[in-house]
Every structure is written in C-alpha cells, then in structure tokens.
Amino acid sequence: MRNTHGLDLVLLHAQTYFYQAVILLLDHGPDGSYGIILNRPTQYKVSQIKSTVHELLSLFSDNRLFMGGDCGDTAMVVLTHRDDIDGVTQVTEGVYHHNVHGAAAAVAAGTADPSDFRFFAQYAGWAPGQLEEECKSGVWFCTAA
Questions:
Q1: What percent of the chain clears pLDDT 70, i.e. is strictly above it?
Q2: Please, which of 5, 64, 81, 120 could form a disulfide with 77 given CB 3.0 to 4.6 Å?
Q3: Burial of 143 by CB count in 10 Å (0-12 exposed, 13-18 middle, 19+ buried)?
Q4: Residue 121 has what pLDDT?
Q5: 144: pLDDT confidence band, cut at 50, 70 and 90?
Q6: Containing H/E element for 41?
Q7: 125 with 131: CB under 8 angstroms?
Q8: What is the secondary structure of 85-121 as a DSSP string?
Q9: Residue 8: what pLDDT?
Q10: How far, in Å, CA of 54 to CA of 48, rounded?
Q11: Angle 58-63-67 (CA atoms, 0-180°, nearest 5)?
Q12: Which is more confidently placed, 140 or 44?
C-alpha cells in the first residue's frame, strides 16, 4: 500500500469470498481503500447487464464481465491498457481506470476497440485503517504491481 493512486496488488491469504483473489488497489488513503478483484471472471457478458447504461454496454457485447468485489451494488469499474483515451486515470504502469461513458464514447468514435476494456461489477472496499490492520494480522499480503 502506498499512495492514493493504488500502486500495489493485494493478495488474499484465506477468506472464503476472497480465496486466492488478486486485488488491484485503485485508491488507498485516510478515508479508506478500494480496489477490484482481477481474477474473478463471471459467466456473463457485459451486454447482459441490465442497468441505466445498458445501451452503452451493448457496445461491449463480447466483453466478459468480471466480479470486482462485494461492495457497490450498481458500481461498474472499467480498466484499460490505453493511455490515449480522454479521461483515463493511471493506476500503475500500463493500467488505466475509466468509466462506462468514456469507454463507450471512445468505441463509438472509432478510437478504441471494445477489447481494449475490462469491466468489473462492484468493488472491494475497506474502512479507514481496516486494510492496514488486516495486513498486519496476515489476512492480506502486498506486492508491488
């Protein structure tokens, strides 16, 4: 864990829900932490999700949906490897955070391909100080991204 731009991966030791999860921290600071589970693909495609942005998600009909965590029932996190798309925020070298609207705009404009994006339903979250305590007690193991 380092700054508020999440430059570390967090690996889980042994909890049922997070068993063998690899989590990319997207933010870590005095107000708490959040990230996404990178290795939890679902059986669903992004276009199957019914939401207020369903029309935008139809542009990503072949993209697999990943389960990002257990928080934020309606949250959708988008990652890309592309740094040339308007509105992306760098998470770590070669990994950028975006949102559904920005990803859809890039695809609709022809400046990006749907395969340039990975979608995560929900996220993993911790209250202030909670992640540090869990790391100290051996629940999580941290490594540089």
A1: 88
A2: 120
A3: exposed
A4: 92
A5: confident
A6: strand 41-45
A7: no
A8: STT-EEEETTEEEE-HHHHHHHHHTTSS-GGGEEEEE
A9: 52
A10: 8
A11: 105
A12: 44
Long-range contacts at 82-85 (CB < 8 A, ≥ 24 apart) = 82/106, 82/112, 82/116, 84/111, 85/111, 85/112, 85/116
Q: Answer whether 72's CB lies under 8 Å from 122's CB.
A: yes
DSSP state of 18: T
- Which tokens hold the place of 117? 């994006």
Q: Quick one: which of 96, 129, 98, 124 has its CA closest to 10?
A: 124
Which residue matches tokens 């369903």?
Answer: 54
Q: Which residue has the tokens 């042994």?
A: 14
* Predicted pLDDT of residue 52: 62
What is the CB-side half-sphere exposure of residue 142 using CA atoms within 13 A?
Answer: 16
Place of tokens 């997207």: 26
- 134 CB burial (10 A radius; 0-12, 13-18, 19+): middle
